[in-house]
């Protein structure tokens, strides 16, 4: 074997895992198909749970996050022309979320990986522009193309952190059960140089469809629109995007600030979970193992929570030969994964308007929205899940 651990994919899951292992003295290499510039610019998630922030702080990569991250204690649900605040902190004994761009997390993690462990393993700790095209899950062999040349390495454990469109899950698909759901919506997301129009996130359930107001700083807004799954970004010139956003956020006295659009893209919404999250020497983590629709803001947080479980299991395996953690990895993670799947599907159903919604379904949805903003129990359910729920630590309530 060339190495104890090889990690396919340098997104949040792969990078957090590499750092956790390295801090425990376990060498690994991260093979990432894209360039460093590309992964550091890829705009995605923005909401970090307290547990995610705490883990990044433990890893010593949260200085910038603490300086630039925006701490939020509530979110707004906007419907029927009114705002309703869900007081996340008051409802959860003081817990908060932090708004900080995923690409900033990725930048911080890459800087830490490269400064911590220069030249560890068979070369660099992270190989960028190294596309994995074959993994042998029984023997731990990985084939990848780097610098125009096909290469191979072998590791005792291979971790597939290669996201929702990688090679690792398809390689072992025959040994897994995959649970999937496609939603009849996609999200058109933009990043704009415009001050956020409100200091909290606004989830707006409008009759023309869902819209979300988020931000990255005092000067940058992050905004999303529900669109149909097969719409193309070319059909959405900037003026059309702003006009639609203004309509879906319309409320007396409220107007979004507009500005140059720095990035725009369309992402289909889907759910997927594979069980188990492992076969042979290959373990799956993050989006490679599970996808959630973004309405619940859970994907990045689940990815980080999962690799924390895996890192502890690998440290026991390499430290004392104790494999109980590795054997339990999948079952432990799946409890939290399914909680996040249910919450994300529920938020999605409550806030989005399907084209073919019947009058009956519409009234059910309106009733659900009213219930969440008038019942403390219902608001608490939303808040408890939104800030991050850990089913693996909970006993039944009698
Ligand atoms: P990633 O981030 O997709 O990283 C996978 C990496 O693997 C590389 N790769 C390969 N490398 C080598 N060889 C191959 N054959 C490879 N194939 C792929 C890729 O280049 C990439 O670098 O997965 P990871 O690490 O599991 O992280 C998951 C998160 O990225 C994802 O769950 C979140 O972005 C989801 N998400 C959100 N999550 C949250 O917790 N809070 C949010 O507010 C939130 N908002 C969002 C989101 C995702 C969105 N999109 C665009 C999907 C909002 C949006 C719009
Ligand atoms: C974001 O800021 O990108 C964001 C916020 C909340 C979500 C999804 C994405 O539910």
Describe the structure.
Helix content is 37%, strand content 29%. It has helices at 12-23, 36-41, 50-58, 63-68, 88-91, 102-116, 168-172, 238-249, 299-320, 324-351, 359-374, 376-387, and strands at 3-8, 28-31, 47-49, 70-72, 75-79, 82-86, 97-99, 126-127, 130-136, 141-146, 149-160, 177-192, 201-206, 209-215, 221-227, 261-275, 278-279, 282-284, 290-291. Helix 1 (12-23) packs parallel to helix 9 and helix 11 packs across helix 12 (376-387). Strands 1, 2, 8, 9, 10, 11, 17 and 18 form an eight-stranded mixed β-sheet that branches. An eight-stranded mixed β-sheet has the order 6-5-13-14-15-12-16-19. Strands 3-7-4 form a three-stranded antiparallel β-sheet. It has a domain at 3-71 and 96-180 and 270-353: FAD/NAD(P)-binding domain (3-Layer(bba) Sandwich). It has twelve helices and 19 strands. The termini are far apart. It has 398 residues and is α+β, with helices and mostly antiparallel strands. 8-demethyl-8-dimethylamino-flavin-adenine-dinucleotide binds next to helix 1, strand 9, strand 12 and helix 9.
